[in-house]
Design goal:
By secondary structure, the chain is an alpha+beta fold. About 35% of the residues lie in helices and about 20% in strands. The protein contains three helices and five strands.
């Protein structure tokens, strides 16, 4: 009887530590894909950052540089970097936790890239060669 109790307890611990967090992660990723909109900043599973320009059923057109679009499978999108206004509480909160005004004020704002970095001209290929 004691062995049966230990086996049941171990199965329950495996469920809590492995299965449930994975289900929560999959649900969060599916919600992000459902809420994907034109103009959203995304990152692909390969580490490519870009902006959504067109949404199709199974693929997305992503602009990764000015006038350069790539075709990406929806399932290859690892995350959406754009936060939508409809989110009422921070994503860091676990199920059942409440957002407090102190926690919302303490959350750092997203850092914007420096404008001078965006203004630097790109050197043409072969320009440095003599």
């Amino acid at each position: 009887m004691a062995i049966l109790f230990i086996v049941v307890a171990l199965v329950f611990m495996i469920y809590l530590l492995l299965v449930r967090p994975r289900q929560r992660q999959l649900r969060k990723q599916q919600n992000q894909m459902d809420a994907l909109q034109l103009g959203d900043e995304i990152v692909t599973a390969g580490g490519i950052y870009g902006t959504v320009r067109r949404l199709d059923e199974d693929e997305v057109r992503v602009e990764i540089a000015p006038e350069l679009e790539v075709r990406v499978a929806r399932r290859a999108i690892a995350g959406v970097l754009t936060e939508h206004e409809q989110q009422s509480k921070p994503a860091e909160l676990e199920l059942g936790e409440e957002a407090t005004p102190e926690a919302e004020q303490a959350a750092p704002e997203a850092e914007q890239p420096s404008p001078e970095l965006e203004q630097q001209p790109v050197q043409e290929r072969g320009q440095d060669r003599g």
